[in-house]
Amino acid sequence: MTKLTDTQLIVLSAASQREDHLLTPPENLKGAAARNLATKLVTLGLVEAVAVGRDQPAWRTDEDRRLGLKITPAGLIAIGIELEEYAGDGDPVGDAVPPPGPHEPASTGSEPRHGSKQALIVSLLQREDGATLDDLVRATGWLPHTGRAALTGLRRKGYDLIKRKRADGKTVYVIGGEQRCERGGAPGVAAAGAEARA
Question: Which residues contact 86 (CB under 8 A, 6 or more apart)?
Fold first, then answer.
């Protein structure tokens, strides 16, 4: 697989967090640089051109049509997001991305695939001490923004994530007490950080 640049990873990660999964053109890229970024991502199959409305980010205007870029299932995989997190009904890109609209958290009854990076993150967050963003980055090899996107994905799946500060000032994320017990973790953590829920 092609190694992606930081800019490519940032725009793909940001798109994965949007409900419409459209890429927003970076403010610091104009003209040829923005076109080159778009062309590269389309060529790699990580995004596809789609017609967009007036209130959605557009990368190009052809005649009277506004065109945007939408992340594809391959794009989600390239940034380390499992397609099961995005299973939707009737989406034109292979049911991998949810349709636009309110996103309801999924039931937490579905466990991450054994051996996946998401399963690794869940196991780190189930520890009594939880995990910092640095812990997640070190364990997965992801960039920090991708680690944050994974935390958002877990929240959307219905995980009760608690955010608290350690004595050294670092932010720690922990899966809530009841979910930790159901999944084999230690109980009693939810009360300790209930006031600091994310």
Answer: 73, 76, 96, 97, 98
Q: How far is CA 177 from CA 29, 92, 112, 169, 198, in A?
A: 44, 38, 18, 22, 15
Number of domains in the chain: 2
Residues 6+ apart with CB under 8 A from 4: 12, 78, 79
**Residue 101 counted as domain residue:** no
The range of the structural domain enclosing residue 157 comes to 117-196
Q: Residue 192 domain-assigned?
A: yes
Give me the residues of the chain with pLDDT under 70, please: 1-2, 83-110, 177-198
- Predicted confidence at residue 132, as pLDDT, reads 92
